[in-house]
């Protein structure tokens, strides 16, 4: 059958009876689409779309998209500028656990919105949490966005599932001031009482508080300076790195009520040199999250204060919540170490929409008036080299 001549490209009927689309790309090379069409009008309509893409500079070479997602994703992580080591580790873990098993061997140009939807549905069916599914989806979307917009390997990003990037984390517990103080008191080793207080009342992350050195704490306990953090990298162990964000570098005023405990801790448990770690394991090594919980019997301790599901990070969450009433958005961002106002706005919203927060603040003014008669303190004990749990100075609210 004679070919119908066109100004741009042509369609021709193959011996099988199906129709093939052929055209010249921007480089002058003759190309044919990898798929064929049953009807001639469908082939001509597709050729018109290709012509429009070329005119609008929106054309991608179909053959370039044949690279597998797994190969492209690994290169994407390696070539991504400015990624922190912990972020690289997170991306590799998300790919390995949730993405590559289903999509790793699929060519980029074969990943469709339907396939992405099926992949996500399979994750949820397997019991993967909404939070982890959302993290994996956002990573997949970012990788394919680069493939579409920067590398022009695919015509568009197939990640178009509404709401798939949203995390719906369960509400985390928030301790009262009395619960924080009690949790510090029930620590089986006195050297970890200041750890609880400083983490909660200064809104520190685990990596930030465990990386504190003597030079990062005022001798009178009036401030702590966050200049670095510890992250645990597979194959490398604990690594000291800059804080999570630029705003993470900050100096935080320590509430006066807990300064005596911090000063006593520096005196009794921290070596005199400037780079000595403020908080360590019993034998003096850097703290590891996986070793800390069993050491202090965390589950028993938090159950005893009425918060059995409490995680260590919830101490920071508690501190942020307690700091929010009356604080400006900028003040909260500075104390929390956030570049973006998003997290700070969550705490502001959570504490201003409820009338109870206003009542609590008014109650606090009354309590402050009676503070001298309602607050007692135990005296600091002697230095305790064996960490036998002797009692140091702690403020107790009656």
Task: Summarize the helices and strands and which ones pair or pack.
Elements: E1 10-13, E2 19-24, E3 30-32, H1 40-55, H2 69-79, H3 85-103, H4 113-125, H5 130-150, H6 177-185, H7 193-201, H8 206-209, E4 223-226, E5 229-233, E6 237-241, E7 250-253, H9 259-269, H10 289-296, H11 298-304, H12 313-323, H13 329-336, H14 341-352, H15 355-369, H16 371-374, E8 375-377, E9 395-397
Antiparallel strand pairs: 1-2, 2-3, 4-7, 5-6, 8-9
Give a short summary of the structure.
The chain has 16 helices and nine strands. The protein is mainly α and 398 residues long. The model is unreliable at 350-358 and 376-398 (pLDDT under 50).
What does this structure look like?
With 398 residues, this protein is mainly alpha-helical. The chain has three domains: 10-59, Double Stranded RNA Binding Domain, CATH 3.30.160; 65-150, Tyrosine recombinase, N-terminal domain (DNA polymerase, domain 1, Orthogonal Bundle), CATH 1.10.150.130; 177-397, Intergrase catalytic core (hpI Integrase, Chain A). The protein is 45% helix and 9% strand. It is built from 16 helices and nine strands. It has helices at residues 40-55, 69-79, 85-103, 113-125, 130-150, 177-185, 193-201, 206-209, 259-269, 289-296, 298-304, 313-323, 329-336, 341-352, 355-369, 371-374, and strands spanning 10-13, 19-24, 30-32, 223-226, 229-233, 237-241, 250-253, 375-377, 395-397. Strands 1-2-3 form a three-stranded antiparallel sheet. The chain has a two-stranded antiparallel sheet with strand order 4-7. A hairpin with a 5-residue loop joins strand 2 and strand 3. Helix 3 (85-103) packs across helix 5, helix 6 (177-185) packs antiparallel against helix 7 and helix 13 (329-336) packs across helix 14 (341-352). The longest helix is centred in the middle third of the chain and has 21 residues, at 130-150. It is elongated. The model is unreliable at 350-358 and 376-398 (pLDDT under 50).
